[in-house]
Structures are given as C-alpha cells and as structure tokens.
Amino acid sequence: MSLLTIKELTKFYQADKVAVDHVSFDLKKGECLGLVGESGCGKSTLARCLLRIEPIDSGSIYFGNQAIEHLNERNLHLFRKKMQIVFQNPSAALNPKLKVKESLIDPYNQYKKELDLSYFSYTSKDAFVKQLLEAVGLPSHLADQYPHELSGGQRQLVTIARAISIEPELIVLDEPTASLDVISQKAVLTLLTELRKTLNLSYLFISHDLAAVSQMCQRILVMKEGRLVDEFETNHLFDNERHQYTKELISIF
C-alpha cells in the first residue's frame, strides 16, 4: 500500500533552471525509501516540496488517497501532523532561546486537538517530555538544558524526538547524519531503524551517503540534476543493469 505517491513533480527556481524535473515515485507504508545523489541535485528541494514548504510548479502529490498539492492553509496545517521532517543541521532546527522541553512540547501544543496518540501518553508536560527523551535514549535531565549545552549528536536526537512526538505516519530525513561524527552517525541510524519498527513509521531517507542509505533502506532512488535516473531494491545495488551514475556513486562509497 502506497503512503506517498508523487507524479511528474516539477519545480523551477528560475525560468530557465529546473530544480526538480518530472519526478515520479511511490513510498510504501512502513518502508524506508532512500534518495541519493550529489549535493545540488535537487534532493532537499524535493523534500521541501513534498511538505509543501515550497510550492510546486506542476505535478501531483498524494498522501494516501488525498491530493495535497493545492491544500489551503488550514488543511495544510492538519496534514503536516502526518508528515514531519528532520533536517541536516540540528543547531539550526532548534530555537536557541528555548529549553529542550519547550522545543519538544511545541508540536503537541500545535496539534493537541487533532491528536490520537497510541504510543506516547500525555498526563503532564514533564511526563510527556520524559517519554520522548527516553524513546531516543537521552537522559531526562537534558529537558532543562538549552541546545548549545548539548553535543551535536544529542541535538539531533532531540530533533528526532520532536519529530516523533505527534506520532506522524511519515518522516522525511534530510541528511540527518551529515553534520555528526562517525560514532554519533551510527547511533542515530540504529535509533531510526528501531523507531521505524516500534512506531510503525515510514521514512524518506535523503542523503549523499550511499553507505548509510544502503544500511537503512529497502529501496533506493538515485537523483541526478533534478531527475530520477535509477530505482531499485537495495539488494540489487550492485547489479550490472544499474545506471552509470549509480555505478559512479558506488565507486566512491
């Protein structure tokens, strides 16, 4: 069953520059789908379009059976509780003036009237925050700290905790380990795998790191200059019929 279906999505940045060029794919419920390609190929632009952070110029975006490319602001707000994003730079994603607990509670406060949580339970603000921190392996005392008091790996775990706090169906992971050291990268990837199974999440995992994508994902899409040039199940990564660009990516990872 497809959770997300993209049909001929196109995004122009200028009249003569196509950032995303007639991209079509589907993402199945419960799947981790990888999207790889070099920096500047259009991966992050595609992610912002899927979340309707940026408008698209043509094409269709379906979440389940609902077309979302033309939703008004109210319906778009309701839709976004179903799809969250984790960005590459956790320092930029967290408000430096807010304590961790305030950042974690913000999505709940935005959507509490529409939420029907099944894994987390809200009995009090402090108990809810503690549950979220425990879910990503962080000690509860970090709730009262500010982002600058945390390590890079801890900050990224906080952004993941915030993303799962309203139990979305899909999380877009946009280069979630790119700014982390090797040890933190491994910890984050392991956690994401566990959370996908525990919370029945689906992921679109965007990265230039083919090794991380092949570890996480069941299927992989390859993007070059705004277009999808290859699509395959991960266990067919090294097949001879792979696109030449895919083979070039393989040769350097």
From TrEMBL:
Show where the ABC transporter domain sits. 4-250
| Domain of life, per lineage | Bacteria
Q: What are the entry keywords?
A: ATP-binding, Nucleotide-binding, Transport
Q: Which GO terms describe its molecular function?
A: ATP binding
- Which Pfam families does the entry link to? ABC_tran
The record's section on PANTHER family has:
ABC TRANSPORTER, ATP-BINDING PROTEIN, TRANSPORT ATP-BINDING PROTEIN
In its UniProt entry, what is this protein called?
Dipeptide/oligopeptide/nickel ABC transporter ATP-binding protein
